[in-house]
Amino acid sequence: MIKEFYKPLIAVYILQCILGLCICYVLYKCFPQHQFYWSMISVVLVIAPDSKDSNRLAFDRIKANILGSSIGLLLFLIRIPNLFLICIGVILTIVIGIFLKLNSALRSALSALVIVMIHEEGPNSTWHIALERTGCVMIGCIIGLLITLAFNSFSSLKKQGNKVDE
Questions:
Q1: Residue 53 has pLDDT above 80, yes or no
Q2: For the chain, what is the radius of gyration of the CA atoms?
Q3: How confident is the model at residue 39 (pLDDT cuts 50, 70, 90)?
Q4: Is the dihedral of CA 130, 114, 67, 17 positive or negative?
Q5: Largest CA distance in the chain
Q6: Which residues contact 145 (CB under 8 A, 6 or more apart)?
Q7: Is 132 exposed, middle or buried (0-12, 13-18, 19+ CB in 10 A)?
Q8: Cα–Cα nearest to 141, from 22, 20, 54
């Protein structure tokens, strides 16, 4: 089992996650009035440990996050008991996600839905909260995608360089 951690793919995945978390944490510390802690969750949901399909998975997870947070934002505007709305959101997210062929990214969609919809009831509970959470989820997704693309382009350049040397 310990040998698994020495594989280059695992080390790269760890580095990608740490880098994404650090970027989102800097945003969280620099802008404490905003909810960038949700970006930290999104960034690790978007980054994939397997490099062969990581670009496609990152794009699918971003689509899924957009789906889940959009449904959460729309349902947030309806003022009925929260648990009932979350259940409706889960159903809608799964059905639409399957229709859009995002099966492998449904967990990301459901996470985004819950992030946007969970809130404290009270006078300060406005649609601005849901909109801000949606934005923070999207920022985490974009950071995760950019990290994935950067690492994959570096990896492909390295492979091309090795082929030229042969």
A1: no
A2: 18
A3: very high
A4: positive
A5: 67
A6: 46, 58, 59, 62
A7: middle
A8: 20
What six digits make up the tokens of 97? Answer: 């996600």
Q: How far apart are the first and last CA of the chain?
A: 34
Q: Is 141 exposed, middle or buried (0-12, 13-18, 19+ CB in 10 A)?
A: buried
Model confidence at 124, pLDDT cuts 50, 70, 90, reads low
Q: What are 54-74's pLDDT values in tens digits?
A: 788 888 888 999 999 999 989
Q: What pTM value is reported for the model?
A: 0.79
Angle, vertex CA 74, rays to CA 69 and CA 78, nearest 5:
135
100-110: average pLDDT: 91
Query: Residue 82 in 3-state DSSP?
Result: helix
User: Is 15 a residue whose pLDDT tops 60?
Assistant: yes
Token pair listed for 78: 């309806």
* pLDDT > 70? residue 158: no
Q: What's the CA gap between 81 and 31, in Å, rounded?
A: 31
The two structure tokens encoding residue 94: 């799964």
Q: For residues 109 and 67, what is the distance between their CA atoms, to the nearest angstrom?
A: 6
Report the Cα 99 to chain-centroid distance in Å.
20
